[in-house]
Amino acid sequence: MTDTLATWGGWDPAIRDDPFGHFAQARARCPVQKARLADGHPAWVVLGYDAARQALSDPRISKDMLAALQDNGDVVAEGLPGPEFSRHMLNVDPPDHTRLRRLVSRAFAPSRVAALEPAIRTIADSLLDELNAAGPTATVDLIEGYAHPLPFRVIGELLGIPEADRAQLHAWFQVLLTGWVGDPPAEAVEASDGIVAYLAELAAAKRRSPADDLVSVLVAAEDDSLTTQELLSTLFQLIVAGHDTTASLIGNGVVALLDHPGQLQALLADLGQLPAAVDELMRFTAPVPHATFRVTAEPVTLAGVRIPAHEQVLVCLGSANRDPGRFPAPDVLDIGRRQNGPNLGFGHGIHYCLGAPLARLEARVAFEALLGRHAGLRLAVDRHALTWTHGDGLVLRGLAALPVVLGPARNQP
Ligand code: HEM
């Protein structure tokens, strides 16, 4: 290994807040390139659309994180809460992947998800009522008061997390998902310990008295087709995947629309365009800019670049979704864009986001409720004051806060 590798990640705030120019420059140099991550680990970064699509679905590229760690210490170690919580579908290959995904997939089937729409709308309306209580000219934080609690309440309902426990659990996850390089800070260790103990206790409670929720479904499958480690890992992963990502899509999407008043006006004129607009906001704002851990099980050639076996592969979805070879004028936000095939925001292949129908529905309802009521929504701070957090984590990209003035509320039908 040489020390001449470019670093990927660990960017200064200017790049983190707007990484797309950086992605474009790197992609123009080469769609697949070897780099060093901010924590020192080497990785092959995949930036072009076609190469990214191949990497996401090539069976020679493994997601078995624990096997890879045993094989080669140079792959990225799982962060908190450690290996006992990393045995979930996103970190394994078939046949384990097939088994673990099947256990929960029924809960995310499109017809089941569609039935959740009235409940999601009620959550969105009640959050907006709470924000409105401050008055039409007050500054409110749309992340803290809307984008985050909405998907967290939905995943809480699906899993059967008692309402009284959600605030504490949410606070712990917020700390854990901030991202850091090197050793985790003390508050992250504390949050992780809290989550581990809580989820173990939740599973025990559902074993004692099962209910009509996803934790009870998983507990019932324990022993036969699911180990306790897999059960706890799955709960952890569903909560992480199920809220921070969607919150970022809503927050990033609102900023993108405010940045493009013409697009916002076009959307306001016909909110029926929202399903397509949500996909374009996903492509344009990259709430999940990089896919999760992958490692080559054998040599693989991507875009003419040969990657040896046992090396880490990092697929940059945010770059692939702005590849001009796939999306003409990729840096233009166009809610009426014909997508020319799906963008890779939800991934591709067997690990394609299981929650995609739910995330699309949550985002559509969140925008519909917000814009339907508050067509005059505006930023309450200078645009440049907005900062994207998640520290140096590469997988999540969301705002620390989004201070807005909602303006007068339109009456709802
Ligand atoms: C805007 C919101 C979301 C985005 C952008 C997103 C993105 C992604 C991406 C890119 C992957 C694939 C990662 C990879 O291959 O490395 C993924 C997988 C996954 N997502 Fe999502 N996701 C979102 C919302 C959700 C929600 C709401 C849930 C569930 C409640 C969910 C559950 C999952 C699960 C379980 C997987 C793993 C699938 C597998 O390994 O087979 N996601 N998501």
Roughly what is the average pLDDT, rounded to an integer? 92
CATH-defined fold name: Cytochrome p450
CATH superfamily: Cytochrome P450
How many distinct helices?
Answer: 17
As laid out across the biggest beta sheet, the strand order is 1-2-3-9-6-4
Structural class: alpha+beta
Query: What is the count of β-strands?
Result: 11
Main β-sheet: number of strands, strand sense, barrel status?
Answer: 6 strands, mixed
Bound molecules: protoporphyrin IX containing FE
CATH architecture: Orthogonal Bundle
Distance between the termini: 63 Å
Low-confidence spans: none
Q: Strand share of the residues?
A: 5-15%
Q: What integer value in Å does the Rg equal?
A: 21 Å
Shape: globular
In helices, the fraction of residues equals: 40-55%
Domain count? 1
Kindly provide the name of the CATH class: Mainly Alpha
One letter per element, helices H and strands E, the order comes to EHHEEHEHHHHEHHHHHHHHEEEEHHEE
